[in-house]
Amino acid sequence: MSKDKYSAVWVSHSSIANFLECPRAYFLKNIYKDKATGHKVKLMSPPLALGQAVHEVIESLSEIKTDLRFKEPLLDKYERAWNKVSGKSGGFLDTDTEYKYKKRGEEMIRRVIKNPGPVAELAVKINMDLPYYWLSEEDNIILCGKIDWLKYNPESDSVEIIDFKTSKNEEEGESLQLPIYSLLVHNCQKRKVDGAWYWYLESNDNLTKKELPEVKDSEEKILKIARKIKLARQLEVFKCPEGEGGCRSCRPMEAILKGGAEFVGHDEYRADVYILNKTEKIEEDSRVL
Fold this sequence. Notes:
Elements: E1 9-11, H1 13-21, H2 23-30, E2 41-43, H3 46-60, H4 74-83, H5 95-114, E3 132-136, E4 141-144, E5 149-153, E6 158-165, H6 177-188, E7 192-200, E8 208-210, H7 215-235, H8 251-257, E9 261-266, E10 272-276
């Protein structure tokens, strides 16, 4: 089969996580388009708004030379980033809730200011807006994803993967996130991957090291799941494992289709953004990616 990225099935850590949690949620988050607008739909919530603002500030530093990264105060950058998610745009239905989330983010930024760690060191940027590679040309499947930070080690000309976490919960041991990022880094640039870390910004000044499986093992595991996703798309079968009543992954998205959510605008990809009304709730431990 000849390469055609427009007909290929694209998978990422977030879409794979959606599918493994609930195929119906995967469909609503990655495939479904509103018939009236022709746009995909997205549900915004306070945890997601917090993650978006903090990530925007920190990740932008990797594009600035090390001696200039902190020339502009990070809290000023955070204020601008927060303005994008303030009010209903970030899923905030009252000022008290927004204040609490904004203060949490400020403390994370202050932690980085006081203890910049890898953020003050040399970084590598992959020269792709969205890093991707052909996971399987035969199956017409592409793996894609954005990596938060690649620390550069000049002595060994290698890189280390760092993922910033803004949620209160630690990532599960079986998470596929870092193995997927390792595959992307391995295939989208030439330097060796020397390690992978999480930085839990709310609770820790130091990074948490995570062991990576062998590249071949990760690729086989991810491809197996990706083939299941492709088959589900071909058969157009996306059933919630908990039945017609739905689960916590798909129920919030179903609220959009049922008119139980409020439209608040568009994101950078022109998706229609909604927030839940007061009778609905998104779990506090919503996944921040």
